[in-house]
Design brief:
This protein is of the alpha+beta class. It is built from 8 helices and 19 strands. The two termini are 38 Å apart.
Length: 394
């Protein structure tokens, strides 16, 4: 029984690690704005991304156009994964950009096309930080790219010098602010929907009300193996039975909050996430597929990272399959049997657009061996009128 214990621990740690992990989103690179900024298309909306830990020469600086071209050669018109870990002052995402698991930021630094930006290094893990530092040291010693110059000027020094030239009386603080904000750059179009796979940290008491065994007496449902509650959050149009000792967290994103509930019972993990986000005109089917794909990819990356930490590296494979139409209550709904995934799963999702806001509800159960609670959880996840605030558990 050792292997199931290890695997379950990995899955749990994907959700309840001590740090809040960044969310992930996919997209095709449709523009390269500079040597450290690119634009991807995600859910048919442009999202600007600033390479985390990377500072390339400014576009009006020597080598700026070369750095931009080098980044374009690496990623333009290619699909990439962005590990989002923050939002910059200009509203662009800050994160690592991965192409076929290759870190593009580290590659830019290693090729001598950019500097390692230590101002944001606390957002990189220790391993990535070391890679970035060593990449710059290697590029310097081999005199690659911009390091061919005798005294290359760092981008932040160039920005400071330009600000002083334009306004010699400017204070150091205003110069620093000008370097960070860059207000002339367009603002990214971000939605909660693109950030659904944000990680989950330790959370306060869940928004749930207690239920007794009679509440579970639906046709074909036996008694639960542990203590379960009904989850019916205020303002949300769904209801589900969930493990009583689960955790809920509300993750701030640009347009509001992404809500996640996660619980464990026996060998199974149960997760629900719900958001409301501006619609870009996508179809309900596309929204469900994109949201579940993002969610599963986030879980997969967490699984792979944690499996390495426990000394048992393992890849995670999971694709949407075996779709069943479960539309109800004015919502488009789909259910998926993901039993062929590395960690078998069952999933349900409901969505509709109200007043130009897309409501999205997703439930996923991961299990080692499917017991009666897995179908009970999935089948109980249904559309229901929103609960009033007074019914929240205290």
């Amino acid at each position: 029984m050792k292997r199931p214990l290890v695997v379950l621990a990995i899955v749990v740690s994907c959700f309840v690690c001590s740090e809040v992990q960044g969310s992930s989103l996919f997209g095709k690179v449709v523009d390269v704005n500079s040597g450290d900024v690119l634009t991807i298309s995600n859910l048919n909306r442009p999202v600007r991304v600033k390479l985390l830990g990377v500072d390339a020469p400014e576009m009006n600086q020597e080598f700026g156009d070369v750095a931009k071209k080098h980044l374009a050669d690496l990623v333009l018109d290619k699909s990439v994964l962005v590990e989002y870990s923050g939002i910059a002052a200009d509203s662009s995402l800050q994160g690592r950009v991965l192409l076929n698991n290759a870190d593009i930021g580290a590659q830019m630094i290693r090729d001598g096309a950019a500097w390692f930006d230590a101002t944001n290094m606390n957002r990189l893990n220790v391993s990535d930080r070391d890679v970035y530092k060593q990449s710059e040291q290697a590029a310097r010693s081999e005199r690659r790219g911009l390091w061919q110059a005798e005294y290359p000027m760092a981008p932040w020094e160039f920005v400071r010098a330009e600000a002083l030239r334009r306004n010699p009386a400017a204070s150091l603080k205003s110069i620093s602010d000008a370097a960070n904000i860059k207000p002339n750059r367009p603002v990214s179009e971000l939605t909660n929907l693109t950030l659904m796979s944000a990680g989950v940290a330790a959370a306060p008491r869940p928004l749930a009300t207690s239920v007794n065994s009679s509440d579970m007496a639906s046709p074909g449902a036996g008694p639960p193996s542990g203590n379960w509650r009904r989850l019916r959050p205020a303002g949300a149009n769904f209801s589900a039975f969930v493990p009583e000792d689960g955790k809920q967290t509300n993750i701030p994103v640009p347009f509001g909050e992404n809500h996640v509930y996660m619980g464990r019972d026996g060998w199974s993990i149960y997760a629900i996430t719900w958001v409301a986000a501006p619609t870009a005109g996508e179809t309900d089917k596309d929204a469900i597929a994109a949201s579940l794909t993002i969610f599963l990819e986030g879980v997969g990356r967490g699984f792979q990272d944690r499996s390495q930490l426990v000394g048992r590296p393992q890849s995670f494979v999971c694709e949407l399959q075996n779709e069943k139409n479960i539309s109800q209550g004015g919502y488009t709904g789909s259910e998926f049997d993901l039993s062929s995934c590395t960690i078998p799963a069952r999933a349900r999702a409901f969505t509709r657009v109200v007043d130009n806001l897309r409501q999205m509800y997703v439930a996923v159960a991961f299990y080692m061996q499917e017991d009666e609670n897995v179908p009970r959880f999935i089948n109980s996840f249904t559309i229901a009128p929103p609960q009033k605030s007074a019914s929240r558990a205290r």
